[in-house]
């Protein structure tokens, strides 16, 4: 019998397991894959998320893996307009990072296990267990245990946490409905190249596409192209050709470095970027991360959202678990209510950016602030989910 079973061991699940285990909660952390392993991601973590890693004593270990700090951003809004500034600070943290997910996810999982969580890798959720209308556990298949055994196994817990992504099996099993379906507007593809000069985070906007380039692990840059979702099927027919043509158009100086010899892996990506909020808690269950709420990658808020949700749950659950089922359900409901209240504006702003909205209206404003690094940084804070459009407009005057 566990206090908590967490299904999904990437950023949301592993962070939640880590924070709960450090407080003495008995945690089973299960994932269908093994670690280290990769997943589609923008990689970017804004300063608020970096601050979480520091608070959890994981920032220095991450930087020690060769993950470079990113302290400068150049935003190419038009051919004759480049905004240069720093990431929008959170407390005293003024850097972003863009770690490979093979490194970040494994770091979180290892920290969770070191804190006392039990890890089952290769464990696919088959179904959740119900008793008297309440989730009381889960059944898994093919998960290796600490003794090397495998097969179907069933475990019970006071709470099952679904941290299993956009296509959450937990959400399906508990019948979690969509409470907000904002649609799908974008797609993205990216690859890794060596040999690019370190110019921090570079963003190129225009021509119906966006190109980003920033340093990641192993002295490589991640180069990403985003298009409207309407182009997804076309781009998939010849990813390399469309990708390189887009970079050549929007960022020719970057394109010069994208040679075959410098590329380390195939270009990958996704058109699965729906914007939605699911019903996220119920008797004996709660959803976190993309299982609960997901946004287009245009603002790169996913990892940071996962961390903040993990923190919110971990602050509430230990006392609730000690008090019993009603307290657990009340605590998860309060967590969801706070998430919805605090995250509503960032969600709608991301949807607007994903739709390509406000670009023509923003351009004159961006020209006006180009020589104001403080306002440029504040503009970046909109993408980080820390500044609202109204707050930015008031500051610009």
From TrEMBL:
Residues 2-329 form the FAD-binding domain. It comes from Catenulispora acidiphila (strain DSM 44928 / JCM 14897 / NBRC 102108 / NRRL B-24433 / ID139908). SUPFAM superfamilies: FAD/NAD(P)-binding domain (SSF51905). Coiled coil: none annotated. Keywords: Monooxygenase, Oxidoreductase. PANTHER family: CONDITIONED MEDIUM FACTOR RECEPTOR 1, GERANYLGERANYL DIPHOSPHATE REDUCTASE. Pfam families: FAD_binding_3. This is Monooxygenase FAD-binding. The keyword Methyltransferase does not apply. GO terms for molecular function: FAD binding; monooxygenase activity. It comes from the Bacteria.
